[in-house]
Amino acid sequence: MQSQSTPDFDIAQFKTVIEQAPTKENGWDLEYEGAVDKDFKGI
Amino acid sequence: MLYFHIIDCTMKAYKKTDTSNGMTLRTEVVLKGFNAENFVLMLRDASYRKKMEGPTKNFKIIEETSKNTDVIYFELGLPFPLTNRDFVQKRLFVSNKQDPELVAKLGLFNWDHAYHAILIQSTERPEYSVKSSPVRGETIMHHTLLEEDPTDQTVLKIKIVMSQAMNGNLPKVMPSGGGDKMPRNMITELLKSYKKCF
Lengths: 43, 198
Fold this sequence. Notes:
The structure holds two protein chains of two kinds.
Chain A: H1 11-19, E1 29-35, H2 36-39
Chain B: E1 8-19, E2 22-32, H1 36-44, H2 46-49, E3 56-64, E4 69-76, E5 85-95, H3 100-106, E6 115-122, E7 135-136, E8 138-149, E9 152-165, H4 173-178, H5 182-197
Parallel strand pairs in B: 5-7
Antiparallel strand pairs in B: 1-2, 2-9, 3-4, 4-5, 5-6, 6-8, 8-9
């Protein structure tokens, strides 16, 4: 049976980047906002 | 519970140009009629990966290192005259409903509603050594959270934050010009792949 070892994954980084708001102050530029199923054909 | 059709999909895509040879991308998607388990299966299982849309090729699972982790290899096809990149990555898949002990051990989110966390980072394997072509890319982080809406189990929120260094020589225009549409392209390829697979 395989173990549950999880070596060297940066859990703290994961939680931080997922929870951080993507604001201008945090360096983020919004490049798209919309309804994907309407804006892109074939989805 | 299985869903087979994407009913609605809204997306916000962000970029942060903070590295000399790459960028950090963030995509937030809200989907209705989309099954998280199928999404994870599509990313994880090599037979589904072969059906996926996009520039990824030669996908291989090098080793399943545990019930929740593996090491993979794949090549990223780039348009001529650019040299393809390749990646060796370690991946961690955690479901808070299926792996509560691992969630507690790792200190992941202690939420009642269902979520899947996928963490991906570059690693090394001697049998997949660095070559001149393809150029070895580096995944600094590629983190995905699939979160069920607590009030509506048919609604899934996906957050993806990805930072990659493409390394090697790239035209100056490539990281910004070519990368402008990367977040939305990444999602549209994933959604097309989902429709193809399920």
